[in-house]
């Protein structure tokens, strides 16, 4: 994926900065708006006028950008020290640093090996542990639902985006955000099913949502939870 320098456009009286990315994975032009700004994603080799796409979707872009301004204010101000609480599968758990053979997590705490922290930092060791657990958990849930849904995916990739939670490429690659390991288990399952459903239904039409609903009850509530609580799935303001 190639990037261009940031540019600026006036949308509905608002100065909006954006960048253009050319992607070999993209099948159609799209606009991504996240905590870091606005990105126009264009399929490799396709000629698209980013300014026209932005103008056509001006109301949506401006609205999403305002939402992310609010989002920044909602990110927890956690500190990376023993005694702080971090979510794991939807439950806050106290961070414990102690002499032990390996990292672990139980009902009330996330326990990090003291020697590893001394060689690095609490933040880095904590993120590495979450990524490792996310790889195990998300692989298990993806395999579970792929079998139930009768679909096959090519591979599972873990991403490190702040607010984009998943995607499914035309080649069958499922991408999931490692930060999902902080969300409740039923929300994780919704995201997994959502992306696997794209192997059968490429768009978000009626058939797509019917398919999702077969495997995740009350999926709208799960999507709404993620929309309203995604800021909680950031370690701290330092992590933005």
From TrEMBL:
Every YgjP-like metallopeptidase domain range: 30-228
InterPro entries per UniProt: UTP_pyrophosphatase-like, YgjP-like_metallopeptidase
Gene3D superfamilies: Metalloproteases ('zincins'), catalytic domain
CDD domains per the UniProt record, alphabetical: M48_yhfN_like
Record's protein name: DUF45 domain-containing protein
Species lineage: Archaea, Methanobacteriati, Methanobacteriota, Stenosarchaea group, Halobacteria
């Amino acid at each position: 994926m190639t990037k261009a320098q940031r540019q600026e456009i006036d949308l509905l009286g608002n100065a909006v900065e954006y960048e253009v990315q050319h992607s070999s994975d993209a099948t159609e032009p799209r606009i991504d708006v996240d905590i870091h700004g606005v990105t126009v994603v264009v399929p490799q080799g396709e000629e698209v006028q980013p300014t026209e796409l932005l103008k056509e979707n001006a109301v949506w872009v401006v609205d999403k950008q305002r939402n992310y301004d609010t989002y920044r204010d909602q990110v927890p101000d956690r500190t990376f020290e023993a005694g702080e609480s971090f979510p794991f599968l939807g439950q806050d758990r106290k961070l414990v640093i102690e002499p032990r053979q390996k990292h672990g997590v139980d009902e009330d705490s996330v326990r990090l090996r003291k020697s590893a922290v001394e060689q690095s930092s609490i933040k880095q060791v904590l993120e590495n542990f979450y990524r490792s657990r996310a790889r195990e958990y998300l692989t298990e849930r993806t395999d579970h639902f792929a079998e139930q849904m009768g679909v096959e995916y090519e591979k599972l990739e873990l991403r490190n985006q702040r607010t984009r939670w998943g995607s499914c490429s035309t080649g069958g690659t499922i991408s999931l955000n490692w930060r999902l390991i902080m969300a409740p288990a039923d929300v994780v399952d919704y995201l997994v099913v959502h992306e696997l459903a794209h192997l059968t239904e490429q768009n978000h039409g009626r058939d797509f949502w019917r398919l999702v609903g077969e495997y995740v009850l009350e999926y709208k509530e799960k999507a709404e939870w993620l929309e309203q609580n995604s800021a909680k799935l950031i370690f701290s303001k330092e992590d933005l």
